[in-house]
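Here is one chain, start to finish.
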Amino acid sequence: MNTTRKTSRTIKVILISLGSIFGVFILLTIVLLIKGPADPVILTQDQIRANYKQDSTKLSTLKLTEFKTRTLQGEIVEDNIFSKYKVTMITIWGTFCSPCIAEMPELQKLSRSLPKDLNMLSICSDVDGEKLRMKALRQLAEKGATFKTLEADSIINSRLLSRVSTYPTTIFLDSHGVIIGGPYQGARTAEAYRAAIDKRVEFLKGKN
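Its structure:
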């Protein structure tokens, strides 16, 4: 009789435990569906400053050469793309990044307003396979963005993306693929980006 009661209590405890575990699983699933797997992490001002200092130091020696990649549409792009322009602005973004997507209309506005000796393009950092490529193309199309967007080959990954911790990050290169000045982190307006480009054009004039 005592054995039967003990067995019954044990079964009840097991069922209650399983029910609790299942309940936690359902709750976590609901939270994941609501929040999504890649919500941006909110950083403190000190963390933002530390990230900027770290990335600026890593990017200060950047020379982006010897790569051969393609745009999301399949056009082959090599490092000689920089040689035609005084300054090329590159915005690095990801399909997971809400601020990146939100600033695309500003990037499109900028790209359409640049003179022939200045250029702007972007690199989608997380395109790895057809599914993500199509996602990136859809995001660009929804924002009316027609500027060149590159996939990252092994050289772009190792020389550039490995030095970036914040999205979006924007850098400025001269005609040899050498970085000019520090990076911009976070979304900006077309006017702010144009001012940054003009500042770097003036800097290059001073060097010549």
